[in-house]
């Protein structure tokens, strides 16, 4: 990974639901999100929070796929208009535009830091083919193409540690393949046949893949599915490590168990169950993902109770975030834990040299979340919010006029009391900090 570079947030808004439906993470000092009409916006990661950097009108229609390279230097967007836009993240500039002879399905950067070719994998939405392009060449012709699955590829995730791509099709079949040869990577794994693994687990359960996330050390990956189960696999063996059932039946059992960590008020629980059923009925509703922390010992994912932080070693829930936010059903999440290299050289001011006297953490670890039918990106942070100089103006900062319903919602915030802080970044570029 590149030193001195922070994490990236990627979010895409759904055209019909007008809410954020996808988040991913990579390495970069900037944050990006694509919005409802194909807009791409860059946000600079600061020591505390983020700030707007640049705005692009990337596509005529909604952004259907967005990926950032493992080194955090390149960004790519695809849409139904068959256009591929490639951006230089560091310089906030569009580098290459390609026109595909097919409608893109999944998109993923599949090269390591230092590779000569910046390989970009794009699947065909209507066939079994995956095409590899060299972003630096600017050519519309792929380097190589091959049928990886028996059906169209739905999800791809690159593991830069082992230089292997994990992909899934619409039937839930998982495949490993090398981006160089597009063949099975025999030298990178400890099995020869998938029958010796649990990679057919999703097919056995008659479910598919919603998202794939790989841990920083490359040793494991997490798969979320429409059956509301989160499965954690060991990468080298393809064996299941953990399965977490977040189905509605399990939620009801936990509610009846009266365990304080999971217990909700009856009215609140009923309201959340109604939202879950609405999500199931909503066509193209965003599905939750699951991400690893830097240590690779914790798995973080959103449920109807809030955002669970699970210790994979002890197999216990360490914490639930956003449990009191009963009006928000969090879905996609991304984690930014700060830059390790900066921690080594950053000096503490003399006045704050005493650890006991310094209340603010040196880094700003932030959990970024999207919610169902919300225009906002929610930021959870350990930092206490700062009070505005003019209390009459509140803590809202605008650089775009929000819709009328957004203004109405903000006007009602002052009438509600909060028992903990929650930092919210709206896609309308509005800071709202609850305390």
TrEMBL record:
<protein>
    <recommendedName>
        <fullName>Serine-threonine kinase receptor-associated protein</fullName>
    </recommendedName>
</protein>
<dbReference type="GO" id="GO:0003743">
    <property type="term" value="F:translation initiation factor activity"/>
</dbReference>
<keyword id="KW-0677">Repeat</keyword>
<comment type="similarity">
    <text>Belongs to the WD repeat STRAP family.</text>
</comment>
<dbReference type="InterPro" id="IPR001680">
    <property type="entry name" value="WD40_rpt"/>
</dbReference>
<dbReference type="Pfam" id="PF00400">
    <property type="entry name" value="WD40"/>
</dbReference>
<dbReference type="GO" id="GO:0071541">
    <property type="term" value="C:eukaryotic translation initiation factor 3 complex, eIF3m"/>
</dbReference>
<dbReference type="GO" id="GO:0003723">
    <property type="term" value="F:RNA binding"/>
</dbReference>
<dbReference type="InterPro" id="IPR015943">
    <property type="entry name" value="WD40/YVTN_repeat-like_dom_sf"/>
</dbReference>
<dbReference type="GO" id="GO:0002183">
    <property type="term" value="P:cytoplasmic translational initiation"/>
</dbReference>
<dbReference type="InterPro" id="IPR036322">
    <property type="entry name" value="WD40_repeat_dom_sf"/>
</dbReference>
<keyword id="KW-0853">WD repeat</keyword>
């Amino acid at each position: 990974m590149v030193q001195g570079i922070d994490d990236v947030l990627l979010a895409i808004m759904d055209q019909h639901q007008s809410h954020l439906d996808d988040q991913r993470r990579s390495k970069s000092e900037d944050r990006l999100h694509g919005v409802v009409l194909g807009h791409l916006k860059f946000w600079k990661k600061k020591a505390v929070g983020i700030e707007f950097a640049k705005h692009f009108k990337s596509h005529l229609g909604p952004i259907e796929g967005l990926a950032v390279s493992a080194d955090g230097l390149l960004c790519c967007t695809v849409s139904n208009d068959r256009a591929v836009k490639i951006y230089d993240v560091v310089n906030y500039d569009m580098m290459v535009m390609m026109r595909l002879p097919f409608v893109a399905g999944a998109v993923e950067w599949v090269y390591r830091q230092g590779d000569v070719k910046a390989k970009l994998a794009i699947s065909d939405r209507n066939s079994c083919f995956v095409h590899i392009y060299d972003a630096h060449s600017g050519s519309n012709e792929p380097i190589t193409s091959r049928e990886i699955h028996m059906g169209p590829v739905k999800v791809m995730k690159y593991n830069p540690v082992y230089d292997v791509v994990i992909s899934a099709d619409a039937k839930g079949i998982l495949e490993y393949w090398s981006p160089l040869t597009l063949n099975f990577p025999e030298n990178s794994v400890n099995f020869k046949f998938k029958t010796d693994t649990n990679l057919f687990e999703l097919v056995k359960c008659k479910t598919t893949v919603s998202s794939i996330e790989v841990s920083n050390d490359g040793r494991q990956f997490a798969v979320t599915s429409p059956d509301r189960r989160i499965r954690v696999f060991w990468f080298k063996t393809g064996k299941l490590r953990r399965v977490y059932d977040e189905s509605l039946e399990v939620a009801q059992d936990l509610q009846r168990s009266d365990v304080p960590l999971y217990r909700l008020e009856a009215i609140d629980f009923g309201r959340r169950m109604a939202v879950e059923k609405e999500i199931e009925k909503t066509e193209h509703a965003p599905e939750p993902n699951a991400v690893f922390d830097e240590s690779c010992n914790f798995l973080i994912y959103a449920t109807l109770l809030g955002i669970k932080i699970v210790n994979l070693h002890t197999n216990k829930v360490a914490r639930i975030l956003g449990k009191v936010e009963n009006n928000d059903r969090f879905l996609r999440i991304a984690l930014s834990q700060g830059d390790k290299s900066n921690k080594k050289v950053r000096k503490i001011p003399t006045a704050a040299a005493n650890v006991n006297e310094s209340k603010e953490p040196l880094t700003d670890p932030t959990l970024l979340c999207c919610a169902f039918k919300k225009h906002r990106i929610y930021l959870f942070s350990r930092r206490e919010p700062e009070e505005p100089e003019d209390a009459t103006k509140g803590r809202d900062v605008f650089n775009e006029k929000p819709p009328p319903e957004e203004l109405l919602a903000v006007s009602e915030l002052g009438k509600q009391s909060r028992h903990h802080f929650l930092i919210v970044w709206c896609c309308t570029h509005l800071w709202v900090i609850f305390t």
